[in-house]
Amino acid sequence: MNKMNNIIEGKIIADTIGKELQLESTQFFQEMYVKPSLSVIILGEDPASLFYVRMIERTCQKVDFDFRKHTLPEVASEADLLHLLHQLNGDESVHGIIVQTPLPKHINEDRIRETVISSKDVDCFNPINMGKLAMGNPDFLPCTPNAVFEILKRENIEVEGKHVVVVGRSSVVGKPLALILLLKQPHANASVTVCHSRTKDIAALTRAGDIVVAAVGVARLIKGDMIKKGAVVIDVGTNEEGGKLVGDVDFEEVSPIASKITPVPGGVGPVTNMMLMKNTLQAAKKRLSY
Fold first, then answer.
1. Whole-prediction pTM value?
2. DSSP-H helix ranges across the chain
């Protein structure tokens, strides 16, 4: 198979979603005179975090959302952060809230996640939103797992009844993605296997997968002999190797075998930010009973 024909271009998908969201946002503003508004809190000057926040800001501009950045010093107390969160929770003009992670060690990340009100938790980290997803009735879907789900839908990849193998069990990607793919709704209804560091013979499981999602954070972990011919491979990993960004999948080995594959960079990443915008618009509509 010519691997150039089977690469899933995340940027193209993200651009399409962005145009759709911009139209929805314009219509929402024309009817409600309100722009969807996203507030991002960042503590300190971590370069990776600052880069990600800039990407969120650019995405907000692209879809004509209101973006608000709140910067606290890295030494800010947990009480200071909680005070700001309570202010944003009560601000009717704010529809979505993100607290950029990782947080300084002196701040309890679980407490912060619990403090972001669930109706503005557009990252879907609040236990209430995660619980609703687990029960099969989510208000929001976590952004990175939802990006994977959106890619599968827009690429017309059949999921229902298929065996999806997720490599990675983090609460950010692996576990919520498994829950999304298990939902009783169109484009889901998969049979899901979740692998992790204690799984024996991961290769035997990935070779059985119709769809394999790698989200474990180990560069080039998934090799060509771990994938059956014609499988769909979604690479969520972002690892630095020799000054380059590489995924959890050995792209050179796997791409000739897979029927479709996402590259790193340029695969899941661009779609993830659009899912954040989608959640923010949904939160705005819900708050205003649109």
1. 0.94
2. 10-32, 47-62, 78-90, 109-115, 127-134, 143-154, 174-181, 202-206, 251-254, 268-287
